[in-house]
Amino acid sequence: ISFTEALQHFQSMELSESRGRVRAPGRRGILAALLRCLRGPPRLRPQLRGEQELVLAMAQCALDDSEWVHMRILQTIYRQLTRSGLGCPRYGAHWEELGFQGRRGSTLLPGEIPIPKIQLNLPWSNSVLSQLPQPLPVFQLSFHNAGILVVFQNFPFCIMSVNITQMVIQALREERLSRECNRRQQVIGVLNDLYAAAFLRLFCLWKGQHGTIADAGFFLKELELSTKKKPRQLLKSLEAYVSR
């Protein structure tokens, strides 16, 4: 399934239950509002609020085995990461090999469908990221082959993806990305680029420092801080990487 088709599916859904769980930024006092005007990020423009609400609602959707689009997203993830021309069974150890917790292509984290699942293959087919190669180098860094067994040497790819997506969603919820969204007049495009930029940063950290799974918490903390405090810097690093 393409990103465009998957997004159109969720745009056509009511998502009323998920929208009801969306937490908008809380109200601020007069002093906080003044400081925001002087130093903080601007408010998201009204014409972009609908797109923001859609993204936050999508992030609350749970994986549904009866939903054909969800299953197609899972199959797309498998085929893109493994470069297989064939699909795979719904359940099995192959999902653990991709870095999921368990054998059903899911995790124990809430809000894992659709944004994190789409973003596993989305960034390499959308916006500026269409100029990037497929995510194989990042995926291959996450494990090494030991005979016929696949052993995680560094990090479970899909779990890290879910963590990064949650950081990006939280940055949007807290309006940390409003300036960039306003500048580009879009929300989803900014989210996708920031997701890929954060994953690129993770790749560089892990490879450059010869990271292991023991370093995961430290690297994730750095990524979380960067998505909150320095999103534009992350995006510029992605732009520089693409233009090389």
From TrEMBL:
The superkingdom listed in its UniProt entry is Eukaryota
The identity of this protein, by name, is: ELMD3 protein
The lineage, from the top, is:
Eukaryota, Metazoa, Chordata, Craniata, Vertebrata
Name of the gene this protein is made from:
Elmod3
Q: Tell me which residues make up the ELMO domain.
A: 69-231
Residue span of the signal peptide, if any? none
